[in-house]
């Protein structure tokens, strides 16, 4: 993941911002997280068997199952976004040129886009429970169920949830996404073609990401009830959010 500050978006600037915004959780590096990693593969496998039994969709093999930190989640998604959004970077450069942003102002504008993206991903990293990864940063086919351990442990304690039931529910959600993309061969290619078409037709607007950050923050106040899960991303993100808000 890279980007020249003179030609494209300098995505490397987004990483430290995402890490700072994502923060940490006291139990993230304890035996609780290790126990989650040790038991999660079996939970996901059991959930996948239930999905197959109910839907008839066959999902050969087992996905990689990872417990990641908030920073890891932000970094993995930043890498994926930078790959998927590569076609639009030239449009951003053209937009900056059309607006008269050349030289130092142009460089600053590109840096701002990267920093805003990092802030948005860092904020989401505090809320995401898990996701099924369809696309790897390299652009190769992905088959990974990633769970943000800090957020799972935090929500279990905040809401006094039974870990075995809650973790199975998360696994069932992600196993369902995997069944969609692995069990129906044409869906992955069709989905990626829609993403490519959307990105290719997008017209970048200065400050748009910044406004999105503000809107998400407004919708997800720190005082909001974190006990509700909402589908946010077509890549299968399961996110804690206020049941009265819409993202």
Structure description:
With 247 residues, this protein is α+β, with helices and mostly antiparallel strands. Helix content is 58%, strand content 12%. It contains nine helices and five strands; from the N terminus they run ααβαααββααααββ. It has a five-stranded mixed sheet with strand order 1-3-2-5-4. The longest helix is centred in the N-terminal third of the chain and has 25 residues, at 31-55. The radius of gyration is 19 Å and the shape is flat. Residues 219-236 and 241-247 have low confidence and may be disordered.
Number of strands: 5
- Rg over CA atoms, rounded to whole Å, is 19 Å
Strand content: 5-15%
Basic shape: flat
Strand order of the biggest β-sheet: 1-3-2-5-4
User: Kindly state the mean pLDDT as a whole number?
Assistant: 77
* Tally of individual helices: 9
C-alpha end-to-end distance: 27 Å
Helix amount, in percent?
55-70%
Helix/strand order: HHEHHHEEHHHHEE
Which stretches are low in confidence, meaning pLDDT under 50 for 5 or more residues running? 219-236, 241-247
Structural class: alpha+beta
Instruction: Tell me about the largest β-sheet.
Output: 5 strands, mixed
Oligomer: single chain
Summarize the helices and strands and which ones pair or pack.
Layout: H1 14-22, H2 31-55, E1 64-68, H3 70-84, H4 86-98, H5 104-125, E2 128-135, E3 141-148, H6 149-158, H7 163-183, H8 185-201, H9 208-219, E4 228-231, E5 238-241
Top keywords for this entry?
five-stranded mixed sheet; alpha+beta; 12% strand
In short:
The protein has a 5-stranded mixed beta sheet with strand order 1-3-2-5-4.
